[in-house]
Every structure is written in structure tokens, then in C-alpha cells.
């Protein structure tokens, strides 16, 4: 595997994903955390950073000690740090380089540049530049504006040291993936055998080893992660996996029945629990968004726990935790190490004295889908838009009543079906309807109406952190407006949300 030491760059996860796409396993570690060496580590990549290497308190690491064991590649800040710690000089550049640049070289024989065009588009994002190389280091590529775009060195008794001033991990560096491949395959000598099939195989073995003949309980949500995780555990231990799928009354129209049915078809040992009235009862009169979330979270745990305690001899809790939830990243505000909160069923494992089984803990979302495909999970699950845990509760602004839920479910179903029919569903990242606490005047036939407004939301995004409103065709929006108003009693107005995130959020609450 490859270790990526994170110095806080926004692109660190992209390095990891590019390497995984080359079918090589890699892990991201905070730069200041001591390395746990093991023979599977074949190379190290030092990431970019929001710091300048000349900032007081800029994070630094012992690169020579690393290179004594494996090849090291520095990217952007990583390259500058390498130049600096070996005695070179880094300074603010007179020309700041951001965005497109062209790397030029004549070193066809150079392993890192193998098969890379003599002039290759790369993506720069730095204001510092290396003004003097350390002794023994050789420049192997430049750009029009900066003399050092790529360099290498191999001190005696050391593995190769390489540096790239630009970001090979972003798609705008057109041959960046090839550069990473040259480093990983030709210099670090990694085997490209990290495939979905290999992952499935290894994971099933690992689960069997961890769980033995004990029992696992797991909550399913209908989402991609919990479904793929459950199926992997199921493949490993069969009927010793017990699943619980809770109907909180806040799912999409008919979703509980459809999804429960699919789970049963997959052969999962699953119990569907209808807890609608409990949720509606406790949510009565509550309109504060945070309070809604808290109530739903608490009730979910209560219901799940009650089901779990009815089962005997349960030793493990299965979870669909994925890699972005557990990556320890370097805070942008300082070289301190911060750990993102892990999502788990709110303290349940300790309370119930269970250990965790998390088969997807080291996968990115797109890898979860690839693994899902490998084990034959239906596109019904794999292609599904994200849906928030609190469900329609945070899409009904103000107080929640069963009538409002039913109204919103109808409007939502028309919209989602409409998106599918128009082949727009897979073009947007997430879509849904929001019921506004606003009534307005309308006219239907000869009658005056005074009914609710529904907002349609559709966004494009890659991770939900930022999002743009989807520019859906007017004809489609016109059809949705007609269909919803004509078919859903209680709604006489439809609006389309044209806000991006930031400054808005995807959900309205
Ligand atoms: P926002 O509204 O913060 O949403 O832009 C970003 C993504 O997160 C989802 N979301 C949630 N998911 N529990 C969840 O499981 C929640 O409380 C929650 N709030 C928002 C949202 O649907 C979007 O995909």
C-alpha cells in the first residue's frame, strides 16, 4: 500500500482516490502522526497544504528517515518541504501560479516521466516556489513560469525522492494519473491488485475471522452504504446477521414496503418495524429543526435497541461507516490534528457491550458502489440519491402532521418519477420536494383555493459539501408544476429553488 501524509490540502482525498482507481490500496494519515511501519507500505506521498513551508509552525516531517525505507513523492507543499529540509530554498514567487500551466521536459527515459508528453497540461495552486534546489537534486521538468516543476534525487543508501510542484491528482492535470502510476507502479513497485473482487474476497474472510460463529445486529436505512455493508456481512456469516429496518413514517411514498421487500429478496434476515405512530406522536407540535433531528435520533435508537435486546447472544453491531467519515485530517487552522466525528448509532456499542463490524470503513462512496455491483446489489440501491436520516421531517417546514407527510409523499413521488421518466434522475446528485408552511390564494375551476406551496429542489454535486442548483429544463418544470397541482390535494403552488450551497444548504432545515 501507499501512505499519504496529509498536510491539510483540500485535494488530499483526491490523491487517495486516484491511487485507488489504479487498483492500489492507500491510506491517508495526519502528517504529524508517527508512522506505524509494516512491510506492506511501499511508498509515501506528501500532500499539499494551506501552509507555506516558511510559516512559523508549518508542519514538517523527517523525510530522510522515510526515504531510508521507501520512495517518497512530494506534491506541491510536499515538494517544497522536501526541497527545504534537504537544504534548498523556497520563497514567495514573483509570479503566483494558479490554474493551468504546461510542464515541459525532454526526459523520456526518466521513470517518473515515462510516457508523459514533452508538453503536458498541469494544474498549479501555489504562491511559493523553489528558488534553489538542494545539493544532489536534479530538476527534471519546468514550466514557462517556474524553473522547477518536477525534481528527483537519490542520496546514497536512500530510496528515490521525487517532487512535483503541481497537483497530479486533479483532473485538470491531464496526465497526472499517469505520473502517479509511474511513481506507484514503476518506482514503488506496487501490484495493481486492489480490485472490487479482491476487496470482497478479503473482506468476507476478515469478517469471518472477526465474528466467528457469533451474531451481528445491524440497522438498515435503505441507503447504499448500509445495504452494501449488510450484504457483505451476510455473505460472510449468513443467517447470523440480524437486520432491523425501521419505518419512522418519514420515508418516501411506499419506500418502506418496497425496500423491505428487496431486502427479503436478497436473503437478508430482516425485521421491518412499523414505528410511525411513535414518531408522529413525539414530533407533534415540534417545529424547531434541531429539536426534530434530536427527537428522531433518540427514537430511532430506542426502537433499534428494543429490537436488538430481544435477540439473544448478539456480540457485534454492523455499520455502514465509510472512509470520509473516519479520515483523520489536519485542521486548516493549524497543524493540530483533528478527528472528524465518527457516525455510529449514538453510543449504542458501549451501552450494549458490542464491538463494531464496519466492512466499508476504508472505502470511498464510489468504491462502495463498485463493490455493490460486484456482489450483485440492485441498481435500485446503488443508483439512489442520498436521503437524510430524519427523512421528510426536515422537508416539512414547521410542525409535522401525518396529513402533511402524506401530501409531501405524493408530490415527491410525482417529482422523482418525473425525473426518472425524463432521464434526469441520474444527472442530478439529489432531488426532493419541500413543503412550505405558507398558504396562498389560487383559483381552480370557479373556486378560490387557499392551499400550501411545494418547493422543488435538485442539485448537482460530488460529495454534498458544495452543490449547484440543477438547471432543469423549463418544459420539465412546467410539467411537474401541472402534475403536482392537479394531482395533490392541498397544494396550489409550486416553486423551484435556485440557490447553491454555499450560501444555502441542500436541505431547507
Ligand atoms: P445540507 O442540507 O447540509 O445537506 O447541505 C448535505 C447532505 O447531507 C444530507 N443531510 C443529512 N443526512 N442526517 C443525514 O443522514 C441529517 O440530519 C442530514 N441533514 C442533511 C442532505 O440530504 C444532503 O445529502
From TrEMBL:
Keywords: ATP-binding, Glutamine amidotransferase, GMP biosynthesis, Ligase, Nucleotide-binding, Purine biosynthesis
Any GO CC annotation of this UniProt entry: cytosol
Protein name as catalogued: GMP synthase [glutamine-hydrolyzing]
General function of this protein: Catalyzes the synthesis of GMP from XMP.
Active-site residues, as the UniProt record annotates them: 76, 167, 169
UniProt cross-references to Pfam families, sorted A to Z: GATase (PF00117), GMP_synt_C (PF00958), NAD_synthase (PF02540)
Subunit structure comment from the entry: Homodimer.
Domain GMPS ATP-PPase residues, every copy: 194-384
Leader sequence residues: none
EC number: 6.3.5.2
Organism domain of life: Bacteria
Chain positions recorded as ATP binding sites: 221-227
One example GO MF annotation: GMP synthase activity
Catalytic activity: XMP + L-glutamine + ATP + H2O = GMP + L-glutamate + AMP + diphosphate + 2 H(+)
Keyword field contains DNA damage: no
NCBIfam families documented for this protein: guaA_Cterm, guaA_Nterm, PRK00074.1
PANTHER family given in the database record: GMP SYNTHASE [GLUTAMINE-HYDROLYZING], GMP SYNTHASE-RELATED
CDD domains: GATase1_GMP_Synthase, GMP_synthase_C
Pathways per UniProt: Purine metabolism; GMP biosynthesis; GMP from XMP (L-Gln route): step 1/1
Amino acid at each position: 500500500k501507499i501512505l499519504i501524509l496529509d498536510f491539510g490540502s483540500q485535494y488530499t482525498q483526491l490523491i487517495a482516490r486516484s491511487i485507488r482507481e489504479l487498483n492500489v490500496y492507500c491510506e491517508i494519515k495526519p502528517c504529524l502522526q508517527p508512522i506505524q511501519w509494516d512491510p506492506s507500505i511501499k511508498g509515501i506521498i506528501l500532500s499539499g497544504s494551506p501552509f507555506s513551508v516558511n510559516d512559523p509552525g508549518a508542519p514538517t516531517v523527517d523525510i530522510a528517515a522515510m526515504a531510508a525505507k521507501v520512495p517518497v513523492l512530494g506534491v506541491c507543499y510536499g515538494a517544497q518541504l522536501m526541497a527545504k529540509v534537504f537544504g534548498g530554498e523556497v520563497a514567495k514567487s514573483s509570479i503566483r501560479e494558479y490554474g493551468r500551466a504546461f510542464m515541459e521536459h525532454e526526459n523520456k527515459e526518466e521513470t517518473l516521466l515515462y510516457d508523459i508528453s514533452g508538453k503536458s497540461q498541469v494544474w498549479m495552486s501555489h504562491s511559493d516556489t523553489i528558488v534553489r534546489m538542494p545539493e544532489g537534486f536534479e530538476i527534471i521538468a519546468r514550466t514557462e513560469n517556474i524553473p522547477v516543476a518536477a525534481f528527483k534525487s537519490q542520496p546514497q543508501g536512500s530510496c528515490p525522492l521525487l517532487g512535483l510542484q503541481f497537483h497530479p491528482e486533479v483532473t485538470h492535470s491531464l496526465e497526472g494519473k499517469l505520473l502517479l502510476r509511474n511513481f506507484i507502479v514503476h518506482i514503488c513497485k506496487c501490484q495493481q491488485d486492489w480490485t472490487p473482487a479482491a476487496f470482497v474476497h478479503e473482506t468476507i474472510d476478515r469478517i469471518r475471522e472477526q465474528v466467528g460463529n457469533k451474531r451481528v445486529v445491524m440497522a438498515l436505512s435503505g441507503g447504499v452504504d448500509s445495504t452494501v455493508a449488510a450484504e457483505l456481512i451476510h455473505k460472510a456469516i449468513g443467517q447470523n446477521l440480524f437486520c432491523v429496518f425501521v419505518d419512522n413514517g418519514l420515508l418516501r411514498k411506499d419506500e418502506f414496503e418496497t425496500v423491505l421487500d428487496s431486502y427479503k429478496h436478497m436473503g437478508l434476515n430482516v425485521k421491518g418495524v412499523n414505528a410511525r405512530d411513535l414518531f408522529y406522536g413525539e414530533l407533534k407540535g415540534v417545529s424547531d429543526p434541531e429539536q426534530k433531528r434530536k427527537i428522531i435520533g433518540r427514537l430511532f435508537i430506542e426502537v433499534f435497541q428494543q429490537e436488538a435486546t430481544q435477540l439473544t447472544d448478539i456480540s457485534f453491531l454492523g455499520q455502514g461507516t465509510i472512509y470520509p467519515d473516519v479520515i483523520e485530517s489536519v485542521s486548516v487552522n493549524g497543524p493540530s490534528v483533528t478527528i472528524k466525528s465518527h457516525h455510529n448509532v449514538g453510543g449504542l456499542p458501549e451501552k450494549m457491550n458490542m464491538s463494531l463490524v464496519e466492512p466499508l470503513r476504508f472505502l470511498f462512496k464510489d468504491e462502495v458502489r463498485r463493490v455493490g455491483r460486484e456482489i450483485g446489489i440492485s441498481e435500485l440501491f446503488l443508483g439512489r440519491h442520498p436521503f437524510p436520516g430524519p427523512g421528510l421531517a426536515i422537508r416539512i417546514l414547521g410542525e409535522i402532521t401525518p396529513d402533511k407527510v402524506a401530501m409531501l409523499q405524493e408530490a415527491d413521488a410525482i417529482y422523482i418519477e418525473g425525473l426518472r421518466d425524463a432521464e434526469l434522475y441520474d444527472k442530478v446528485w439529489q432531488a426532493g420536494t419541500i413543503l412550505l408552511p405558507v398558504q396562498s390564494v389560487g383559483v381552480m375551476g370557479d373556486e378560490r383555493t387557499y392551499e400550501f406551496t411545494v418547493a422543488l429542489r435538485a442539485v448537482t454535486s460530488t460529495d454534498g459539501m458544495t452543490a449547484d442548483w440543477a438547471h432543469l429544463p423549463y418544459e420539465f418544470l412546467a410539467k411537474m408544476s401541472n402534475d403536482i397541482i392537479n394531482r395533490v390535494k392541498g397544494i396550489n403552488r409550486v416553486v423551484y429553488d435556485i440557490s447553491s450551497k454555499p450560501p444555502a444548504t441542500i436541505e431547507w432545515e
